[in-house]
Amino acid sequence: MRITYRNIACYGAFVLLLATPLKAFAYIGPGAGFAFLGSGFVFIAAILMAFVTIAFWPFIWLWRRVRGKVISKRARTRRVIVVGLDGLEPTLAERFMEEGRLPNLKRLREQGSYSRLGTTLPALSPVAWSTFQTGVNPGAHNIFDFLTRDKRVCMPLLASTESVSGGKTFKLGPIKFNYGHDSVRITRKSEPFWKILGRYGVFSNVLRVPISYPPEKFEGNILSAMCTPDLKGTQGSFSLFTTNAKLLAERSTGGEFALLNRQGSLLCGAVDGPPDPSGKSKYLSCAFTLEPQLEAGYAVLRTGGLCVQLKPNVFSDWVELKFPLGRKEIPGIARFCLRELGAETTLYVSPVNVSPEKPALPISSPFLFSSWLAKRNGLYGTLGLMEDTWGRNEHALDDARFLEQTYLTHAEREKMFFDLLARTREGVAVCVFDASDRIQHMFWRYLDDRHPSPREQTPGLEHTIREMYERMDQLVGRVMAKVNPGDVLFVLSDHGFSSFRRGVNLNTWLMREGYLVLKEGKTVGADYLQDVDWSRTRAYALGLSGLYINKRGRERMGIVEEQAATALKLEIAKKLEGLKDPKDGAVSIRKVHDSALCYKGLYADEAPDLIVGYNPGYRVSWDSITGTVEAEVFSDNTKAWSGDHHVDPELIPGVLFSNRKLTAERPHIIDMAPTMLDLFAVPVPRHMEGKVLV
Questions:
Q1: Which is it for the CA torsion 462, 464, 465, 469, positive or negative?
Q2: Using an 8 Å Cβ cutoff, are 8 and 50 in contact?
Q3: 499-512 per-residue burial string, b: 16 or more CB within 10 A, e: under 16
Q4: 3-state secondary structure (DSSP) of residue 419
């Protein structure tokens, strides 16, 4: 059964009760992620579209039949199921299979096939999943990193979206009319395979596949994933409210620490929401009170007429928050966790998610699809990066709380996926699960005795990653039980994993080698390359893997002529390759790739000039990502984020399991899109670069 406007339009009356969403305005959060410029949607238009679809559905159905918009009789299957397990590491998967810990994946390997899956350059989720969707290399889909740079000012920008100013004005005599709105659009180019399938009558249900924000219309349903912002406009900003003044002195990245004000027996605070379009304050806010019940061992949270009992170190369900703006309210949802109750009280608040039931931003297509899912499965998180890794890095959460939050998200996604899978009788059902990636990022230090980041002493945490693999195996087993004869099942990861012990500040290295110059009197440089003397700087680094030449005519303050750029790239690459860590002499950088030789396509010129491929144990330092020039090139990584995959892609493949035998050797993630098309007898476009695998 397909879930289309036909069977979600029944929620049209429900939407009439919602407040009209308003504009959200751009800002750059301090270390929390990079903002977007979004726009509200007119709900009434969505309702009218639903009713029109119902009225004209018989004619649409007949027209599609006449045009042959049905699955081809030549298709080799009627249904394909894709389970993405982000970051699943092949060496661990293979080891755990041999130990008998992953019986379902082992059975899938024996019945069908298993192979390590080649990944992209660089091995980053937005890059790899974009290639998964489109079947092209990054030079053709335009995603090279989480971040890119604004050539005008050499400032970091979120790579996957861009803001578009659409507001217009016209006059009719003395009357001025404003129309249009600012919007955000996806910068990933080329077409995902599900959009092509839709043109040939193959319907797809797509859940949380990066990069899919904002969602694109096609013959199917999609719920956006990575880079979907929170209601504040960032990539995830937590809040920590406390009576403990010592905590307020902490510097926080990715969130805000705020004081709980005492009013008699109550503690009062306000959660920040969307930017305030009136300009009266920075953000709209939602007030709350917290009443500690010390003898009973809990506190009572009250906000907007809701009353929630909070027990120490237990996450609440999703709490609906309302951010008033005049006579209207913008809805959002958040989870609360009472972190401390006693002489001092501390309350964690998750990033405020766009409400899936009453979305103030476009998070799904059709627009009402997210509401349909919420009505069937309950409220769920919509933020692109749901698991609050920065909350854990900044000690707003401990390991146990982070793990609980991660599995709450995972359970929501499982519920939605199996609901949709039961209704996808033919076509494609694809879902990406993130717990495998996030848990390895935060718990790898328990696998690596050499890691400098401290471990917590809670018993059992050392088995967290192994237990996660076992849990993913159980998920696969439940999916296999739903596979019908003739169905094709793929289980894959976009890349593998390794340890991240030491950071390399590329900008500090560039400064020491004379390629980057700071302003007079500066020995270290502020964030966002603010202290760089561009009149004397030939190269700089931004993002997780990229290094740029300061080219004349491309960067606004560029000084390197085009003819000299190629030689300069070779010179820098030669020096960086084999760069040794003074701590123990280990080689930190395996290979530096010239993007001009690695990428092809219309957007290859948008790539960083050089892509750095690290050895396991190393990655770009935290501060180098956003352009800070530190005192030292190398530094210990002491954050909980202790595992990573920003190493040379040859060292970090993903995995690919299937219930069909692979007919091609050395599969690569670029092969998935053409394989999906071929299974349904849909012609593979000439621009796709991959090969058919089964």
A1: positive
A2: yes
A3: bbbbbbbbbbbbbe
A4: helix
Q: E-strand spans in 328-416?
A: 328-334, 336-340, 346-349, 353-354, 364-365
In whole angstroms, give the CA distance from residue 219 to residue 221: 7
Q: Which residue has the tokens 């080799």?
A: 76
How many Å from the N-terminal Cα to the C-terminal Cα in the chain? 26
Helix (H) or strand (E) holding 418: helix 399-423
Q: What is the pLDDT of residue 62?
A: 56
Return the amino acid letter for 481: A
Concatenated DSSP letters of 385-401: S-S-HHHHHTTSS-HHH
- CB contact at 8 A, 391 and 397: yes
CA-CA distance, 103 to 119, in Å (whole number)? 25
Fold type of domain 81-143+189-228+384-497+652-694: Alkaline Phosphatase, subunit A (3.40.720)
How far apart CA 643 and CA 638 sit, in angstroms, is 11
Report the alpha-carbon distance of residue 517 to residue 227 in Å, rounded.
33
Q: Residue 136 and residue 144: Cα distance in Å, rounded?
A: 12
Q: How far apart are CA 163 and CA 145, in angstroms?
A: 18
- Distances from the Cα of 111 to the Cα of 385, 535, 616, 634, angstroms: 34, 62, 33, 47
Task: Tell me the two tokens of residue 629.
Answer: 């020039």
**Residues 619-647: b if buried by 16+ CB within 10 A, e if exposed:** bbbbbbbbbbbbeebbbebebbbbbbbbb
Residues 6 or more apart whose Cβ sits within 8 Å of residue 678:
76, 684, 692
Tell me the residue type at 195. K
Do 166 and 41 contact (CB within 8 A), yes or no?
Answer: no
Amino acid at 536: R
Position 279 scores a pLDDT of 86
Q: What is the 3-state secondary structure (H, E, C) of 628-679?
A: CECCCCEEECCCCCCEECCECHHHCCEEEEECCCCCCCCCEHHHHHHHHHHH
Strands 498-504 and 617-620: parallel
Name the helix (H) or strand (E) containing 255.
strand 255-259
pLDDT in tens, 480-506: 999 999 999 999 999 999 999 999 999
**Which residue in 408, 404, 390 sits closest to 313, CA to CA?**
404
For 654-671, b/e burial (b = at least 16 CB within 10 A) is bbbbbbbebeeeebbbbb
Q: What is the largest CA-CA distance in the chain?
A: 80
Q: Are 605 and 189 in contact (CB under 8 A)?
A: no
The residues facing 169 across adjacent strands are 178
Q: Which residue has the tokens 């980057």?
A: 516
Q: How far apart are CA 384 and CA 397, in angstroms?
A: 19
Three-class DSSP labels, 12-33: HHHHCCCCCCCCECCCCECCCE
Residue whose entry in the numeric block shows the structure tokens 């084999």: 578
For residues 221 and 366, is the Cβ–Cβ distance under 8 A? yes
Q: Taking the domains of the chain in order of start, what are their residue ranges?
A: 81-143+189-228+384-497+652-694, 238-354, 501-643
Count CB-CB contacts under 10 A for residue 405. Answer: 23
Residue type, 36: F
| The pair of three-digit structure tokens given for residue 282, joined into one six-digit string | 């920075």
CA angle 238, 241, 244 (to 5 degrees): 135
- pLDDT tens for 133-181 read 999 999 999 999 999 988 888 888 999 998 776 555 555 555 655 545 6
H-helix segments, 330-398: 369-377, 389-393
Q: List the chain residues with pLDDT less than 70.
A: 1-68, 165-182, 250-251
Tokens representing 145 are 């990193």
Residue 563, class by beta-carbon neighbours within 10 Å (0-12 exposed, 13-18 middle, 19+ buried)? exposed
Euclidean distance between CA atoms 127 and 149, whole angstroms: 16
Q: Report strand pairing: 643-644 vs 161-164.
A: unpaired
